[in-house]
Design goal:
The structure holds 2 protein chains of 2 kinds. Chain A is α/β, with parallel strands linked by helices. Chain A has helices at about 15-25, 40-45, 55-70, 140-145, 185-200, 215-225, 280-290, 325-355; strands at about 5-10, 30, 50, 55, 75, 80-85, 90-95, 100-105, 110, 115-120, 135, 160-170, 205-210, 230-235, 240-245, 250-255, 260-265, 270-275, 275, 315. In chain A, a hairpin with a 5-residue loop joins β15 (about 240-245) and β16 (about 250-255). In chain A, α1 runs parallel beside α3 (about 55-70). The relative contact order of chain A is 0.18. Chain B has 2 domains: about 1-135, Orthogonal Bundle (Fumarate Reductase Iron-sulfur Protein, Chain B, domain 2), CATH 1.10.1060; about 150-260, no CATH class. Chain B is built from 17 helices and no strands. Chain B is an all-alpha fold. The chains are: A alpha/beta, B mainly alpha. The interface of A and B includes residues 172, 174, 253 and 256 of A.
Chain lengths: ~350, ~260
């Protein structure tokens, strides 16, 4: 009995976890990644520390990458799935390496780990992203932190006061993003802790309408940020950003506990940009005929009991392709999808053997 | 008195449907509000929630405060659109009545709150529904707020839908600066300087025929507008009726004279 051939699309936390589990279980795995490196969005956007243990992203993801490289997975970087056809004997897939010819493969099962993208905050013009250089989003600020280069883009000075605004491009009917991004709270608070750890002289304020640091993040991140790092929380959202006289940003917000509108100057504002399905997720779903759910992510066959099955038999899904998720959740889903994909391929092989007998 | 006593209720959570008829302040036993107030509050509350716009405008609230952030009235008055939405959602007739006495009149209906609201509520819209009810039910606050507009209503309801230059006078607009006052002092000359045909008079914007005025009045009467205005300003209605009656007589005489039926 030959080893099952399985395709993993996407080399982020979920795809890496699926690929190395499959390879270790004896499958022939091809991992297709559109970027020139493994690690997915956390690596691409230069994330800094990862909550709740505040570990650098390399420490979290590099062991996974190493396992993939050592376990005999065929990694195809700078590659995209160009065509996709399912038939009785498997999935016929053509992969194009950037600038290269098409390569044809046949797979017994497929895992989509095509991931998410950060929402573009330009669309919420009242927050001034793209207008005021000191208004940043998650990807800008994570990069700044990981490069240890905390300066105001406008004048290169170290900021004295930084504000975070949660739920930008999530929980907002106006921009069509009705769902919670799950990560905005914890990442913002983590960033504030990181700032306070390196620069205790900087004041940090988080503007929120709800803090959703679910599970253990409550005490390990939210409470700790107040107890150990003196991060301040303001219950109310910034509605608009104006330029102050001295070139600072003026955040207009209602403090809903004091029940009055406020205007507070800041040197920097970080927008907690939400998650949406990545271009790769939408395009792969279209190629493979996968249904999308109402928020634009890939629809699981049953969101409660079959979370890694898709609406197409033999194609499985893991990670943020089905909705906002943290790195550990993506890693576990990768393993879960690996198990399902392997079982599907094995059952198929058994059925084929019985037919030919 | 009632107003002050009730302001503490503002942030109480919504109660269950069955309890609605019994306002929380009575449950607390702290004060007897009098049956009239309770009945009025309940009446207005019933009209409010039965209005088809209520379901459409009030969806829910995350209490994020973005509406209040952009609100020009909130910067100057003890007013917040978020609070008004909470009032609309409060299920408490007395809380609603309390807000209708004063707070709803601070809104300038700029609809910035609607533009900002991430939940899709029509906050300025629900405030205008509350205002309508304040007028319909003849609340004192509505009478007081609409007093400066008597002159405008008189003009509009007798002379067709028009605002004439002489209605805009410094006495009614206490917030005018000296510049605006001096500019308004010689309206006649200013009016004559306008090159387009505006009749170049100050007491009318355009001429409305007597027949149109009479037909308009009939529309106001049959659509209930007159009743609404009567609730807040009976004197004004009397004045308008007198003018229109006079016109009607004149109109009938004209018809007779020229043999029109």
């Amino acid at each position: 009995m030959s080893s099952p051939r399985i395709l993993v699309v996407g080399g982020g936390p979920a795809g890496l976890s699926a690929a190395c589990d499959l390879a270790e279980a004896g499958a022939n795995v091809v991992l297709v990644e559109e970027e020139g490196f493994l690690g997915g969005t956390p690596k691409k956007l230069h994330y800094s520390l990862i909550a709740p243990d505040l570990k650098p992203v390399q420490e979290v993801l590099d062991p996974l990458v190493r396992r993939v490289e050592q376990s005999g997975v065929e990694v195809m970087l700078n590659s995209e799935v160009a065509s996709f056809k399912g038939s009785g004997d498997g999935f016929h897939v053509e992969v194009r390496r950037k600038g290269g010819p098409l390569e044809s493969h046949v797979f017994d099962s497929v895992i989509a780990a095509t991931g998410f993208a950060h929402w573009d905050p330009h669309k919420k013009y009242e927050y001034g992203y793209g207008v005021y250089p000191d208004v940043l989003d998650f990807k800008d600020f994570e990069r700044m932190l990981s490069e240890d280069n905390l300066r105001r883009p406008s004048n290169g000075e170290t900021p004295k006061r930084i504000a975070w605004l949660l739920c930008v491009g999530s929980r907002d009917k106006q921009v069509g993003k009705f769902y919670c991004c799950r990560m905005g709270c914890v990442v913002s608070i983590k960033q504030a802790m990181e700032v306070r750890q390196k620069h205790p002289e900087i004041d940090t304020y988080v503007y929120y309408m709800d803090i959703r640091t679910y599970g253990f993040w409550e005490d390990k991140v939210y409470w700790r940020s107040m107890e150990e790092f003196n991060v301040k929380f303001v219950r109310g959202r910034i509605g608009s950003i104006n330029r102050g006289e001295d070139g600072r940003l003026v955040a207009m917000a209602e403090d809903t506990i004091l029940q009055r509108p406020t205007e507070v100057p800041f040197d920097m504002l970080v927008l907690a940009t939400g998650m949406e399905a990545s271009r790769g997720t939408v395009e792969f779903a279209k190629l493979a005929g996968l249904e999308l759910e109402e928020h634009g992510f890939i629809k699981p066959l049953q969101s409660d009991s079959l979370p890694v099955h898709t609406t197409v038999e033999g194609i499985f899904v893991a990670g943020t392709a089905t909705g906002p998720k943290a790195i550990p959740d993506s890693v576990s889903e990768g393993s879960a999808a690996a198990m399902k994909a392997l079982n599907f391929a094995r059952r198929k092989a058994v059925a084929e053997r019985q037919q030919t007998r | 008195m009632v107003v002050e006593a009730l302001s503490v209720l503002r942030n109480l959570p919504a109660r269950k449907k069955e309890e609605q008829a019994e306002p929380s302040i009575l449950l607390g036993g702290s004060r007897d509000l009098g049956l009239d107030t309770l009945k009025l509050a309940q009446d207005i509350y019933d009209q409010f929630t039965a209005d088809p716009r209520y379901k459409e405008y009030v969806l829910g609230c995350l209490n994020c405060g973005e509406c209040t952030t952009g609100c020009p009235a909130a910067r100057f008055y003890d007013f917040s659109p978020r609070e008004m939405l909470q009032v609309a959602m409060s299920n408490d007739p007395l809380v609603l009545l309390n807000a209708m006495h004063e707070k709803i009149w601070a809104c300038c209906q700029c609809y910035t709150c609607n533009m900002r609201c991430r939940f899709g509520n029509d906050i300025a819209g629900i405030i205008s529904v509350m205002r309508e009810l304040a007028v319909k039910n003849g609340l004192d606050s509505a009478k007081e707020v609409l007093r400066p507009y008597t002159r405008i209503l008189l003009k509009v309801m007798t002379g067709g839908t028009q605002v004439s230059p002489d209605m805009i006078q410094p006495d009614f607009f206490v917030d005018w600066g000296p510049d605006a006052v001096s500019k308004a002092s010689d309206l006649k000359t200013l009016r004559k300087a306008i090159p387009i045909d505006v009749l170049q008079v100050t007491d009318s914007a355009w001429e409305v025929s007597m027949q149109t005025s009479l037909e308009l009045f009939q529309i106001y009467q049959e659509s209930g507008v007159i009743d609404i205005v009567r609730a807040v300003d009976p004197d004004l209605v009397e004045m308008i009726t007198d003018i229109v009656d006079e016109w009607r007589e004149e109109f009938e005489e004209m018809k007779e004279k020229y043999g029109v039926r």
